[in-house]
Amino acid sequence: MTELYSLVDIAPTIAKVIGIPLPGVDGNVIPELVDRLQRCDRAILIIVDSLGYLTYQRLSSCMPHVRGATIRCRAVANHTTPAIASILSGCYPHTHGILTNADVLTSSIESILERAEECGIRSAVVIESKGAAAMKTKIDLSLGVPDSRDILDYDAKIRKYSIDLLKHKPVLMTIHFRAIDRYAHEKRSFDELKSAAESIDDHIKEICRHIDRNTGVIVCGDHPIHGRYAEDDQDVALVILDHIE
Ligand SMILES: [Zn+2]
C-alpha cells in the first residue's frame, strides 16, 4: 500500500467497521483497512509505543506474529499522551488539546471508546494506571498497570489484564505496550531492543489466542522511535493482522 495515511485515520476507520458514530473528527476512513476488516464485528487496537514505520521494518524478524497488511501513517505528535489521544479520538492534538492525563478529563473531544459506550457498545482499555484512571469513569472495562522500572514485567501485566478483560467480550479494546520505547530511551543495545520486540510479539500472540475469528486485530505505533535508533524514522507503522490460527 503506497498511499500515506495518518494516525488520526485509525479511529474513524474502526468506527466505520464496528458501526460507531464518530462525527466531526479530523481523520478519514482508510478504505484498505475497512476492506480487510469487513467481516469483523469486534476489534482490538494494540498500540506499541515507538513502533515507527522503519522501526517495525527493522524489528519485524523479531515479531513473527505481527504480520498482515501494513500501512504507513504520518505521526501527529512526538509524545505518547497526545499521540494516543489522536489515535483514539481521530483528531489532531491542536483539536483535542490533550497533552497530559489530566487533560483527558477536561477535553471536550471524546475517544472512540467513550463514543462506543454511549451507544451501548462495550469497550475496554488496558493502559498505564494514571491513564486508566482518567478514563475509568467513562469506560465500562478499564484496568491500569502501575508504571514500573521493570518494563518487561509491566508489559506482561498488560497482557494478563487484557486476557482477563477479554472474558467480558468487549466489542472494542485498546491495549498499550511500552518495552520498545523504554529500551530506546535507556539507550539499550539493538539486541536488547529486539528482545523487547520479541516479548511484545509473544504477548500479542497470546492475546490473539483468546479472541474469535470475527475480531480484527490492529497494531500501530504512537510516534516514531526516539534516540539513536530514530535515524530517518518519521512515520508510524499500522498493521492489520492476518489471523493467527
Ligand atoms: Zn510513546
Main sheet attributes: strand count, strand direction, barrel closure: 8 strands, mixed
Give the spatial strand order of the biggest sheet: 1-3-8-7-2-6-4-5
Question: Quick one: how many beta strands?
Answer: 8
CA(first)-CA(last) distance? 25 Å
Our count of domains comes out at 1
Q: What is the fold-level CATH name, i.e. the topology?
A: Alkaline Phosphatase, subunit A
CATH architecture: 3-Layer(aba) Sandwich
Overall helicity: 40-55%
Identify the bound ligands. Answer: zinc ion
Whole-number mean pLDDT: 93
What Rg is obtained from the alpha carbons, in whole angstroms? 16 Å
Tally of DSSP helical segments = 11
Content of β-strand: 15-25%
Oligomeric state of the chains present here:
single chain
CATH superfamily grouping: Alkaline Phosphatase, subunit A
Q: Structural class of the secondary elements?
A: alpha/beta
- Poorly predicted residue ranges: none
Helices and strands, in order, run as EHHEHEHHHHEHEHEHHEE
CATH class: Alpha Beta
Sum up the overall morphology in one term: globular
